[in-house]
Amino acid sequence: MNTESFAAIAGLVKARSGIVLTPDKGYMLETRLAPLLKQESIPSLDALATRLRDPRVESLARAVTEALTTNESSFFRDGKPFDHLRRLLPRLRAARPATHRLRIWSAACSTGQEAYSVAIILRELGIQNAEIHGSDLSREVVERAREGSFTQFEVQRGLPVQMLVKHFRQEGSRWRVSPELRAMTRFEERNLLADHRSLGRFDIIFCRNVLIYFDPPTKGRVMNALAAQLAPDGVLYLGGAETVLGLTDRLVPVAGERGAYALAGAAGAAS
Length: 271
Ligand SMILES: C[S@@+](CC[C@H](N)C(=O)[O-])C[C@H]1O[C@@H](n2cnc3c(N)ncnc32)[C@H](O)[C@@H]1O
Prior knowledge:
Elements: H1 3-17, H2 26-39, H3 45-52, H4 58-67, H5 80-94, E1 102-107, H6 113-125, E2 130-136, H7 139-147, E3 149-151, H8 152-156, H9 161-167, E4 168-171, E5 174-177, H10 179-184, E6 185-189, E7 202-207, H11 216-228, E8 230-238, E9 251-253, E10 260-263
Parallel strand pairs: 1-2, 1-7, 2-6, 7-8
Antiparallel strand pairs: 3-5, 4-5, 8-10, 9-10
Domain CheR-type methyltransferase: 1-252
Pfam family, one: CheR
InterPro entries: Bact_Chemotaxis_MeTrfase, CheR_C, CheR_MeTrfase, CheR_N, CheR_N_sf, SAM-dependent_MTases_sf
């Protein structure tokens, strides 16, 4: 692949998703895009780059972008945010009228493990009147999240066995989330770069392990957009390698809680 082709593909992916592909990622483009080239009978990445110059190839541009997302996820990933959430949820529930529906957003949810981990905690705490909204750029992972069907390998990563038998049903070699968990969740295709105001307020937002792929201005822009959707006493969880420092002044770390952020100036930011 020549440098112009790399720049064209990387430019398209950045514009559509925020994901920055540095020139050392040439090998990744080759491996990730090989199945798409085969499927579309496109002979090379240079030919793909030429094809993408035509603005009418929307579905190809989407497929290229989706193929270059990293969809790694697991249940109760990184542990700590979920320990914090377990302590925070009863407090948030008590601070709101029973008629208030607690709203939790798993932004960039990939195949849904994060959203279902939150659903399990809500069930185990006996918290009623709550909904989890999962969203991701990639159509394929959103469909998988909606299905709520996981392989043995996927459920073995992070899900304690007693939770597995309680909240999942075995279907052949796979495990499907219980109807109760599914009823608490819904999933949609959504780009983090989009305008989120129509989604309304969330009490808690998870946006983990995705901002690492963006450049600093895009990280800051997304964090500000998420802050705008957060309840005044809400919490935003970021991934372990992500921080708000130097990127936005609308969010501040929750003292002593790695990965948890509250709105700047919010009274009683949940620690
Ligand atoms: C590494 S996964 C993280 C999944 C989950 N949040 C976790 O921490 O386990 C990153 C996800 O971000 C999604 N993604 C990348 N760019 C996005 C964008 N602009 N808008 C929404 N989702 C995006 C990818 O499709 C992928 O599923």
